[in-house]
Write the structure tokens for this entry.
Amino acid sequence: MTPMIDIVFQLIIFFIVAITIQKDFDREIILAPAHESPIIEGDDPTTFIVEVDKRGWISIYGAQLSKSKLRQIIRRRYNRYGQYPVLIRGDYRTRHNDIRAVMDICSEEGIWRVSFVAIQEKKT
Amino acid sequence: MKKKSKRKSAEQPKLEMTPMIDVVFQLLIFFIVTLKQEDIYAHLDVNRPAPDSKPPPEKVDLLEIMVYDEKKLGGEGFSMQGKKVSLRVIERRLKRLARFSPNMSVIIKCHGESRHLNLVRLLNVCADAGLNNLSVFSL
């Protein structure tokens, strides 16, 4: 029995580790498909992810915040890291004006590396 | 001698494995059911002009595409050189143009009321054509 129990425990450890890797994003945001675009590779620790839902509400890792607060965070990060990439996770139904608000804040604070996140390949 | 060996075997505790294996299998099934595979994400990079700057003057290797609200103006939500066009037409033209000048600048003018989906679809087509010099202006 011992080898079998060993295998089962190995599997359990794998699943526990795999589950904790999943990031805390707003699950209500439905991203647009972009099957021909380059995949996001690596994990740049300085990357800043801003989420904009279909109503135009801005959030970071599920925490909703105002435009002035976002500006403050972006400015503080800029003072600490200098130029860093900003990824905008916008719902496909969001009006461009709401996405524009985030892009304007970025460029006003000196951030020029702005990208949109889309789904390259859907798994779920 | 016989009495001694009997006492020894009675003292040794026996480990019951069956409930433990049951629990372990329950946990395993739980993790298999709850584990979700992550989607693969793509990034669409854009250049963002300063909010108060004007679009650069027209050049030969500069292409302008407009994204608008298709619910108000009809069509698929795109126009190229002042004419409403479908995304498929844009894709065909961009691929042809990219063959001659791969460093061509594409200026995307996006209407405020247009959906984010339209912009992403257009950026995806540009990425497919191999055009990386993309600027997004908001109207």
Residues 62-138 of chain B form a domain with the Nucleotidyltransferase; domain 5 fold (CATH 3.30.420.270).
